[in-house]
Amino acid sequence: MPTGADARIVIVGCGISGIATAQRLVKSGFNHVRILEATGRSGGRIKTGKFGDNIVELGANWIHGPSEENPVFCLARQYGLLSPDALTPENQAMDIGGHPPWIPNVFTSSGRKLSPEDVYPSVEMFKELLDECTEFQEKGGEPWPSVGQFIRAEVLQRSAEKWEADKAGSLQRCMFSTMMKVECCVSGTHSLDDLGLGANGLYKTTLGLDCTFPRGYEGLVRKLMSEFPAGVVSYNTPVRRIHWNNSDKSDAHVNVECVDGKMVAADHVIVTVPLGYLKKHYTSLFHPPLPLHKIHSIQRLGFGTNNKIFVEFDSPWWDDDCEVIYLVWEDEDGMVDQVQDVPGSWIKKLFGFTVLKPTERFGHVLCGWIAGHESNYMETLSEQEVLHAVTQLVRRFTGNPIITPRRVLRSQWFHDPWTCGSYSYTSRGCSLQDLENLMEPLPSKRSLAQPLQVLFAGEATHPCYFSTVHGALLTGWREADRLLAHYSSAHSAQPTKSKL
Ligand code: 6YU
């Protein structure tokens, strides 16, 4: 058996989880670590781009819960990548439960600007219900299969008297539709009807008010990779198939077949490709096929789209202190989070915009958010068509018929062939067992074959921080530690020369 230093390690994918795996193994003395990356860049869903003179994040945006428990925060602090306000003890101590307390502006489809107090009842009830959704995981027994069904049923009950079928009640229900679309973006689902109610409580937050990387998220990737020896990553090297061994041959190793036909032999392969990619390619990616329980979990777990549309204006049409703009459609009082006619009305799924701050740096730039099938459709349109749709939308909601954005830039995560969506979510019928099945190495525990041939990392394999950068990073370290433990126990079990 090789020692850790000799073991040939192949990591598939150079996103943050692959980078974290390699970083820990290289630091621990593994000399033969190689990353095979399909694209020409590192970072995967961490992707900083240019928008005019600004840098913007096309993928991950925030460090969610930046405090001691969050390794991305600790690394970013260590590397000097954060602004002073993100480092304050007050910032780290804030408990926002995954929902930053942003200052809103609210506009409606008839061109009215509302005061936040006008929609306060629905926003408060929505938050209350979201909190309640997380409780069923521990309590056990879910009254409804999905978050969407639970929310609708509860709203009807709780608001029956408060929100009569008058104008005011209708406005609250319309605002509810907007909040549901916000939550589709946060969770990365098409509809809250797809989001499992019981499993919703699996996702955990850490303390701290979400912060950004002033010079771009990719700075973290560059810093981590600067610790690698030269030549660790092979770019433009997509993997076609992983030939592992399910028999009890003692010399079993894994062969990684690349799309260009090259074969790379390895003692261990760590697969970090996104769940979206796995869903599409698991049959061709593994030979022999994956065990059935793993396949079922790949199918059951959710992977959805959340895209951004950056829009720049000459001057702001929102308040100075505004951090988020909500758009409320006055014909959506049925608590709806999906549109019927996607080609004709996809833009209705865009819940609104976050405001890029500080203004001195960004000028007047908004980031629109759109999830689900409508988002997948938006990706098929030209940039010009997207710009036109956003222009019409803003004109309608501001009541200003001549307002014209300067430019637009959108992400296209669903059609990215190496990602196939944005991030994972726990769909209806999912449980912790699915996340555990996904992270289980091959061959499965019960097999007699050589252990730890194929290991699995990536955001979708984290039991409570799935869908985040810190979750992804931790899974990379977890799989590196699994190999470290394997080699340290193998060597402590072997007699050393001095003992013979
Ligand atoms: C976060 C945030 N954030 C917005 C948007 C997106 C994501 N996330 P990677 O995909 O990075 O790497 C895999 C590599 O594999 C890749 O390079 C491929 O090219 C390669 N590959 C694929 N196939 C291959 C093959 N065959 N051969 C070789 N290579 C191959 N996370 O912390 N803060 O603000 C956001 C956001 C638009 C798209 C995000 C955010 C998610 C992270 O970006 C993501 O998890 C990690 O980067 C993934 O790293 P990885 O290494 O696993 O894969 C209840 C409940 C609620 C739960 N949700 C709460 C919300 C939390 C998520 N919030 C997201 C919000 C935004 C805005």
Task: Describe the model.
The protein is an alpha/beta fold. The chain folds into two domains: 8-46 and 214-302 and 427-493, FAD/NAD(P)-binding domain (3-Layer(bba) Sandwich), CATH 3.50.50; 99-204 and 306-410, Polyamine Oxidase, Chain A, domain 2. The chain has helices at 16-27, 71-78, 84-87, 89-93, 120-133, 136-139, 147-159, 167-187, 218-225, 275-285, 292-300, 342-345, 359-362, 372-380, 383-398, 432-439, 469-493; strands at residues 8-12, 32-36, 48-51, 54-57, 104-108, 113-114, 233-234, 239-243, 254-258, 263-266, 268-271, 286-287, 302-304, 306-313, 324-328, 352-355, 364-371, 407-410, 423-425, 454-456. The strands form five sheets. The protein has a seven-stranded mixed β-sheet, sandwiched between helices. It has a five-stranded parallel β-sheet with strand order 7-2-1-11-20, covered by helices on one side. Strands 10-9-8-12 form a four-stranded mixed β-sheet. β9 and β10 (263-266) form a beta hairpin. FAD-MDL72527 adduct is lined by residues 12-18, 36-39, 44-46, 59-62, 64, 186-187, 200, 203, 238-239, 272-274, 277, 306, 308, 411, 413, 418-419, 422-423, 458-459, 467-469, 472.
What is the gist of this entry?
The protein is of the alpha/beta class. The chain is built from 17 helices and 20 strands.
Helices, by number, come to: 17
The average pLDDT value, as a whole number, equals 93
Structural class of the helices, strands and pairings? alpha/beta
CATH topology grouping of the largest domain? Polyamine Oxidase, Chain A, domain 2
| Amount of helix | 25-40%
Strand order of the largest sheet: 6-5-15-16-17-14-18
**Biggest β-sheet description:** 7 strands, mixed
| CATH architecture heading of the largest domain | Alpha-Beta Complex
Number of strands: 20
